[in-house]
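Translate sequence into structure tokens.
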Amino acid sequence: MKKSVLALTLLCLTGAFARAQDTSGAVYTMSAVSLDPPVVLIRRVEVQNHLRLTLLQKQALEEILGDPSRAGIRFSIRAEGSADKKMMEEELKRRIEAHQRGVQEEMARVLRPEQMARLSELSLQWRGLMALNDPKVAEQIGLNGEQRTQVARFVAEYRQEKSRVMQSLMQKSDHDSPDGSAKMVRLNLSELDNPLSPARKALEAARDRAEKQILSLLTDTQRKAWRKAVGEPFTFKADKQAARF
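Result follows.
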């Protein structure tokens, strides 16, 4: 059987990623662009101004974040059937998390402790209540085991709907190889910038539903802990919405 190569660009939005289609005996070349909230936010002008970054800090961050090697990861893996597909997704997630930790450690050497602390608060505001699916955040807010299980279920339902919407936005690229052995697909995220698009409405409804479900789980003490964790409310400049889902 002739082997095929699928070059798939994955936009990892708040920890989720698109799934590759099953191709028996395929070698998947996977590229991932990580949209890690702290990295996304520190690039925004209103956040930089809010954190009172100095010119030297901005230059140092530009050197870190402007480096192509920091922009994402790329690797190849053979996948045959659902078991290998699951392994492929887990390996991609592991590499993304390691990549994110490395970049954040470099950022921490540039920012002052109070700036990093505020950036963490802004990151929670950006992520919303679904951040409680993160074990570290859940521990900070004081969620018990049953609550964590319920949060994981609500977030999984949201991600299932998100995966369905993202699949609907996936388009075949015009840059396949002449012999058809290499297939390129990409996500058309422009639909998410249109408030009236079905994709945007579906994701907003799914996100709002998940956040209301999670909020209903929290005790008064936990709600206070969450408000303390996110800090003073901050208004992000309205622009492209894709990174918020």
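Note: Confidence is low (pLDDT under 50) at residues 1-23.
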